[in-house]
Design brief:
It is built from 17 helices and no strands. It has 492 residues and is an all-alpha fold.
Length: 492
Amino acid sequence: MTGRPVLPAAVSPGHGGLDGATARRRYVTVSFLFWLPIGMSIATGVLLFTERGMGLAAIAGFYAVHSLTAAAMELPTGGLSDVIGRRPVLAIAGLLNLTAFALIGLGAAGWAIALGMGLMGLARALSSGPAEAWYVDTVHAHAGPDADLRTGLARGSSATSAALALGTLLGGGLPWLLGLAPGLGEWPADTTGGLVILLSVPALLGALVEGVFVLYVLSALPEPPRPRTTLRRVVGGVPAAIAAGLRLGARDALIRRILLTASAAGAALAAVELLTPGRAAALMGTAESGALVFAGLACAGFLCSALGSQLAPLVARFTGSGERAVLASLGLVTLGLTLLGLTTHTMSPLATTVAVTGYGLVYLGLGAAGPNENDLLHRRVDASGRATALSVQSLSLQLVAAGAGLGAGALPPGPLPWLLAATAVLAGALLWVRRAGPPKGFPDAPPGPDAAVPVPPHHGSSTAGDPVVAPVSAGPLHDTAPEEIHPHARPM
């Protein structure tokens, strides 16, 4: 230590002079508004498509279009906000979702639904990093690179989970409530020639919420102007963005752990989302009753995830570091999946209670792990590649989730799919048993543009116990941006 006083960072005028608390509130609001319409589509999606005359194979194809589009576009679009800005990319994502929900709510033809699902997947890819990157940008501009991020990230994750929970309840309950009114159930279909039915109301309401989201993003998220660019330069930077993202894990062991942990989370979510609805239907005896129970259970899961996110800073303080907090959180996920696996062959009240407890533990653990993982990630990656890094993390989760879902569906019913998912998460947890060292190139190699150099810990930092190093650049995108910078739940 030099003994010199630590001076506060100068506030960047490009961020509108926002302080940390204001930036946190706006980040939480953006997170909530983006995910609320997606939550509304969870409860009614399959039922709406069935009501439109689609078979199960077609419905599975619609969801595959969403997942594969999001996975294919994750890296190509991940660095886009690092080039043209966070706000325009978020606004584009909102407009895409607005169009997608309109197509899904009004479309009676398979091509319209598939197009809507594809646009929603593209919006998911675009939105996987910019809001969080904007928040970190703004906080760093106001308070410096050692500012506390964990609290804001935790509240943003909680807002995402709360939006999904509230959206699930609204989406499942609104058609039922409207159907109770005499004559109102048939009125939309009669008036629009079958174009609008009760089950399409949540999707159409979601389109309206997306409009509010776009207006809020454009008015409430100031950021510094970026260098002028052209479409050719943006498109030409896509290969560099993909290469930069792939280099992240190869260069830094800590980032590699975070990406592998995201993959383990994808395996857990795939098992839960694929296998839980069938267990709910078997418990209740009918698919309709099972769907209602699953909507309530999904809502409870999102609330557990929100609670876990709120507890993330406390878990980090209790365990001594963000890395140990991730280890403890993934241990909870492993326990939850194991309980779900051990109760597959019985539906007694005790077994059902244990299974519901396991379900809650899965989401509680994932909620607590997320903010701590991302806090570590942001301290390891610099402003020029932050959104790219978040996109690589999202890509890792979605690709493994897609493969794990196919695998779990091919396995015979019983404990095996659950226990395999638990094994995958346990393997991810064991990665955090030992502390990660500094990125490659430190301390033996002379510091270059991609090398980490030691940084004195900021007085009062909330990340005591975590390795503190200067962030490494994600690569070629460094020269294209100025020096500034959602639950585990998968929608659809």
